[in-house]
Known about the structure:
Oligomer: heterodimer
Strand content of chain B: 5-15%
CATH class of the largest domain in chain B: Alpha Beta
Structural class of chain B: alpha/beta
Distance between the termini of chain B: 42 Å
Shape of chain B: globular
Radius of gyration of chain A: 15 Å
Largest interface: A-B, 13 and 17 residues
Helix content of chain A: over 70%
Radius of gyration of chain B: 23 Å
CATH superfamily of the largest domain in chain B: Type I PLP-dependent aspartate aminotransferase-like (Major domain)
Largest sheet of chain B: 5 strands, mixed
Structural class of chain A: mainly alpha
CATH architecture of the largest domain in chain B: 3-Layer(aba) Sandwich
Strand content of chain A: under 5%
Number of strands of chain B: 14
Shape of chain A: elongated
CATH topology of the largest domain in chain B: Aspartate Aminotransferase, domain 2
Order of helices and strands of chain B: EEHEHHEHEHEHEHEHEHEHHHEEHHEEH
Order of helices and strands of chain A: HH
Helix content of chain B: 25-40%
Amino acid sequence: MVILLSKRAVDMAFQALYTLTDIRVILRETAPVHELDEKQRAQAERLLENLERQVASLKQEMLK
Amino acid sequence: MKCAAGIEVRQVDEMAINIDPIQAGGRLTADAMKAVIAYGDGYSVCDNCRKPNRLDYISKPPIAEFHRDVASWLNMDAARMVPGARRGFQAVAHTYVHKGDPVLLTSLSHYTEFLAVEESGGIAREIPANEQKLVTPDATAQKIEEVIRDSGKPPVIAFIDHVDYQYGNMHDIKGIAKVAHQYDIPVLYNGAYTVGILPVNGKDLGVDFVVGSAHKSMASPAPSGVLATTAEHAGEVFRTTAITGDVTNRKFGIKEPEMMGCTLMGVTLVGMMASFPHVKERVKHFDRELENHRIVTEALHSVEGTKILSEYPRKHTMTRVDTIASFDKVAETHKKRGFYFSSALEEKGVTGLIPGVTKVWKFNTYGTSRKQAEYLARAFMEIARENGLPVS
């Protein structure tokens, strides 16, 4: 039997990758010391929170 | 860390400030990275390819619209995306140059322009740069006259770099095009270092073809580039196929021979498209890039004995420097010899310099933030001081 994952799971997988991409860009913009200013720090915090939410949704969808 | 068997993950730009002269303008935007994730599969942009079955007609993703936008952005009438600037040179040379035809290049032209001419059987005639390493309209006129005297006909086309790869100098392409047109010579503008970096207006410059390198200057994956032209020349360089198979009687619709049918498929094209809105915006702020570059060149200048070989003040962020009387002096006695310099830079988180080079080298600061430019400037001065070189 073929088990179809939900569209939501696929979307979450991409969204998590995109959030990680935004984090990667912060690492590029702050190389080589990766010292984040206030704005970058707030952005990183928001991105990491989103990532946690996206991974949690993915877990819920894929392992239900 | 590896991304696949035997392939190291590339973290160059995450770990260091990368001043490699050819890599700076091709670093992907976040949107291009995201597009790469979604469109990495081979024929990914062909899901919705419908008749007349040509890449630049696909509307989902909006490839057709992108082609029109790029042409309009360059103020030209038609554009095709190509696998690198060199394929643009090749298409134009193959259309206009025949065996024995003289072709105008410059003494600072990129080798791929020569190869494109060679492949079509043309003869390379270089306009010499002057002592300031600039190619001028006067020198262009003199060279054309020389070619006419030698071969009895003018060059069939001129390939002129707006900013050359050797010095990053900006040449008077508008003046050169005006001279060339007085002899009815069409002009190809090589914008490998300008299209996607600073504003380029093909018709205002008076050129017939604009070639850009997307992986060098439009924040795109390689190989990618653009060839744009006027309505007058579009029907020639973008002519459609006329061939018929003698057994099958097959014809091939509106495929374009110089483009070999479809050009940039999949990830390269979508990467270009994703970066394009950012590229359109960033060219408006080239002054900021020059300001950051100035911070670094002034720091290098402050190391006694260092010479800036490119035109000065700088008009581009790629610069050639001579450090024979400064950093190279240290190499004479240093236990690491010439490798001490790149090694010291790496230790400070700066990469992109050819290991071992201490005499004449190039660097590019395009895309660095102000903070990174200041860091870079400090790094050069610190290395000089640490090695006993006077810094003024």
